[in-house]
Amino acid sequence: MSVLQIVIAALPFLLSLASRNSNAIAPCLLTSIFTVLLGGEPHRAVMAWCIGVLIAAVALRERLRAI
CA 35, CA 6: separation in Å to the nearest integer? Predict the structure, then answer.
């Protein structure tokens, strides 16, 4: 995997760092790791990445809603 692919795979984790509480950090980290590990199987990697982005988006929305 190239560096760009790893950064894109780590996007859910990076987004979860901006959340208000730390409840979303661990699941997003796990989905990012699964995305990197499943890079050889694109359909499974995309599914793990989408779940991570969904979790991070909800956490980030709650952060923005509290402002």
Answer: 9
